[in-house]
Automatic annotation (TrEMBL), chain A:
<protein>
    <submittedName>
        <fullName>Cobalt transporter</fullName>
    </submittedName>
</protein>
<keyword id="KW-0812">Transmembrane</keyword>
<dbReference type="InterPro" id="IPR012667">
    <property type="entry name" value="CbtB_put"/>
</dbReference>
<keyword id="KW-1133">Transmembrane helix</keyword>
<feature type="transmembrane region" description="Helical">
    <location>
        <begin position="17"/>
        <end position="34"/>
    </location>
</feature>
<dbReference type="Pfam" id="PF09489">
    <property type="entry name" value="CbtB"/>
</dbReference>
<keyword id="KW-0472">Membrane</keyword>
UniProtKB/TrEMBL annotation, chain B:
<keyword id="KW-0812">Transmembrane</keyword>
<dbReference type="Pfam" id="PF09490">
    <property type="entry name" value="CbtA"/>
</dbReference>
<feature type="transmembrane region" description="Helical">
    <location>
        <begin position="61"/>
        <end position="83"/>
    </location>
</feature>
<feature type="transmembrane region" description="Helical">
    <location>
        <begin position="165"/>
        <end position="183"/>
    </location>
</feature>
<feature type="transmembrane region" description="Helical">
    <location>
        <begin position="133"/>
        <end position="153"/>
    </location>
</feature>
<protein>
    <submittedName>
        <fullName>Membrane protein</fullName>
    </submittedName>
</protein>
<keyword id="KW-0472">Membrane</keyword>
<feature type="transmembrane region" description="Helical">
    <location>
        <begin position="203"/>
        <end position="225"/>
    </location>
</feature>
<keyword id="KW-1133">Transmembrane helix</keyword>
Length: 64, 239
């Protein structure tokens, strides 16, 4: 089996990945707005909560 | 290179989110409708106009799962870039599926066992803050436990098969078991709420997440494989 596997893969250096770490908070913010926001960060009141309501229930996050 | 991995993550995430939305629409929405009907029957007075109509909420379901899938897919692509060549299967397609399985267990299954999804009408609005915190704590513990299992699997490399798997299993189960046992129980199902509706809703919710993570892992593997071939990376050759 090992003879058929691909040649050893060089990992991507961490310093190249460091810039991309900046995307992580942005992605987490999007996930937060979809799953948990009740107006505290979006300033949209309950609008996001109501719009994403069914998605929140079915994705399994605590909704209300 | 990283950009390729990241953009394909976003794309696979949107595909997975739409697939999960379709599953949720077909198998979850009927239970939400039933639960809302019970909620309204219990409240009697329901005069205020809703902020978003039921039709809008059903459309919002697809928006929610697609956006959530995109965010998840982006994180998945970056995790793939971080992990590849460091740990896990050497084949990129196998790594993609393994990462999705690990993510599902850590982010979905670990919290679900202790704090399962609830339909409308279940749950006390006064405790939403503490329930959300507890849920997120379990997501974090789930992710750390999956990472601990991977580290334990590597640490016992010299011991070979069974010992490695035992170490990985303990690395996962000890923190998760402790968290399940020690974190407070939430029991807020209203008196008389139909048990079959609650069960069916929870199964459909878990199914939605299975579709989300399953399609994410498989479609990312497919997109990665295609990108790799286009880039002309030499394929594995038997020697």
């Amino acid at each position: 089996m090992s003879q058929l596997s691909a040649p050893h893969v060089q990992p991507i250096p961490l310093r190249n990945l460091a810039w991309w770490a900046l995307a992580v908070p942005v992605l987490l913010l999007v996930a937060y707005l979809v799953t948990f926001d009740q107006g505290a960060i979006s300033q949209a009141g309950d609008y996001l909560h109501e719009l994403m309501h069914d998605g929140r229930h079915l994705l399994g996050v605590p909704c209300h | 290179m990283i950009r390729t991995l990241f953009v394909r993550g976003l794309l696979a995430g949107i595909i997975a989110g739409l697939a999960a939305g379709a599953f949720a629409f077909l198998f979850g929405e009927p239970h939400i409708d039933s639960a809302i009907a019970l909620e309204e029957a219990a409240a009697h007075t329901h005069t205020e106009a809703p902020l978003v109509s039921r039709g809008g909420q059903v459309g919002g379901l697809f928006l929610a799962t697609a956006l959530y899938g995109a965010a998840l897919g982006g994180l998945f692509g970056l995790a793939f870039a971080l992990v590849r060549g460091r740990t896990g299967p050497r084949s990129g397609t196998a790594l993609s599926v393994a990462l999705a399985a690990a993510g599902f267990v850590g982010v979905v299954l670990v919290p679900f066992v202790k704090y399962p999804a609830n339909p409308p009408a279940v749950g006390d609005p006064a405790t939403i803050g503490s329930r959300t915190s507890l849920y997120l704590v379990l997501v974090l513990i789930g992710l750390l436990a999956v990472a601990a299992a991977a580290v334990a699997y590597r640490l016992f490399e010299v011991n070979g098969g069974p010992v490695r798997w035992l170490a990985a299993g303990l690395g996962f189960l000890v923190p998760v078991g402790a968290a399940w046992g020690l974190l407070p129980t939430v029991s807020e199902v209203p008196e008389g709420f139909p048990a079959d509706l609650l069960w069916n809703f929870r199964v459909s919710s878990l199914g939605t997440q299975v579709v989300l993570w399953g399609v994410l892992g498989v479609s990312y593997a497919f997109l990665w494989y295609r990108a790799e071939r286009v880039a002309g990376v030499p394929q594995a050759v038997p020697v």
